[in-house]
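Example complex used in Figure S2.
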Amino acid sequence: MRRVSFCVALAFTLAWSFSASLSAQTKKPSEKSKAASSFDPHDLSGVWYDDHPRPNKVDERYWIYKFTQGEPPMTPWGQAQFDASKSSFGPAAVPLKDTNDPIYHTCTPPGFPRVLLHPFPFQIIQSPTEVIFLFEYDSMLHQIHIDGRKHDESLGPLWMGDSIGHWEGDTLVTDTVNFNEKTWVDRMGHPHSDQLHVIEHIRRVDHDHLEDDITVDDPKAYTKPWTGHMTYALYPKWTLGEYFCEDQSDFDEIENNETKPMK
Amino acid sequence: MRIQAQRFALALAIILGYFSTAAAQTKQPPAAPAAAPSFDPHDLSGVWFDDHPRLITVQQRYWAYTFTLDAPPMTAWGQEKFSAAKPSFGPHAIPLAESNDPLYHTCSPIGFPLIYLYPLPLQIVQTPGEVIMLFEWDSLRHQIFIDGRKHDETLGPLWMGDSIGHWDGDTLVTDTVNLNDKTWLDRMGHPHSEQLHVIERIRRVDHDHLVDDLTIEDPKAYTKPWTARLPYVLKPKWTIAEQFCEDVRSFQDIDQDAAAPAK
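Predicted assembly (526 residues):
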């Protein structure tokens, strides 16, 4: 929808480069007039970061806490779970100390696909049999096996699921099941059950842009599958840093107040 | 460890042909002793697991909690830190609930090179500019850049350090600095400071075996550098699973007992 032409995307990138820290990493003006860089659509490797436009209002920036602008269609079970969620993100946000977001107070893994909403870069590396997402956030791993194997139920419910995939032309189609129920599907408190089934359509649309259409299929939580559209830009000068939940001072304060009040 | 036991049992069952589908995949008995399988010494990829012999007594299995049986020569600062440590491993082990190991009760990242002492597999993936170790424990990474870059002090003290490397013939030589001092060096309480500097010489000695010779240099903690050898064996049928600290029952029990004894 948005990527009608490379030139439009470039103009967008220019208008967006207001941040001093980002400007060092955006292209130099002389490179913009070059023809579109050639690329191999089967090469997804590199460090990628969210490429949504930066509106002024935080409320409009839904992609940092949920996958779609509208509400996903929940079942009664799903709605009950959602009503019980007290998220520190979104229009019904509560203060951090009042949240029941499972990752706060415990620093448990954010899980998949939620980790894609955390505004930190990821790096894709590839081998002949795997496509691997390395996330800066909590060092999470999304390991997609493309060697033809089937899902492995014996792995037991996982935080990041059990992912297999295959190429359909220039699109990497992935399929993830075998999730535990210890995470939210996003940062706003939308739920999922262990029937969660995530399908991705990942495509490198040009040299500097990647798209990931994420379909959430969970008949216990949602009346029908729904799809979020995530877009990423390549950051050739970046490497992943470390960002661990346990290092965040606001979590420490909440933890200490709750468990060791006399400390 | 359950998962490893299952994998071993599965491999054994396949070899013995209990599964009809697997029987079609076992090789025919060779007519003559096979030559050693060929390998590319610059290809370190695959899932690797500790290859120390499985001795009977736990006390002999020092590699589960320390890098070398020869006590490294500590400075006065180092000796003081070591004397204050109360480990739950090794010859001076105390019960877990009384340990002051910084990783317990917090589930912070385990750090480098301590991650090597956790008895779980690692997977090596290579790209043209990087050699990356993916650890099953907490999905941590040892990301070695072999593209000629220098260390980057601006990264700040890191849990897993800042690693660069280069090939010296068939040996990958790595150099890691920029480590924080929030962890022990091993599981029995030997210390390290932020001056820790780890050099590795990693070599695939044959198709199924990898050796990592570590050199630990930390002038604040040790009077001179010292070395240790870590042997690994290839596990071609394994994939790395999930093993997150927060899921380890014993840690949670301790935290909950400490925080809410009347619960």
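Residues 1-5, 15-33, 254-263 of chain A have pLDDT under 50 and may be disordered. The longest strand of chain A covers residues 197-206.
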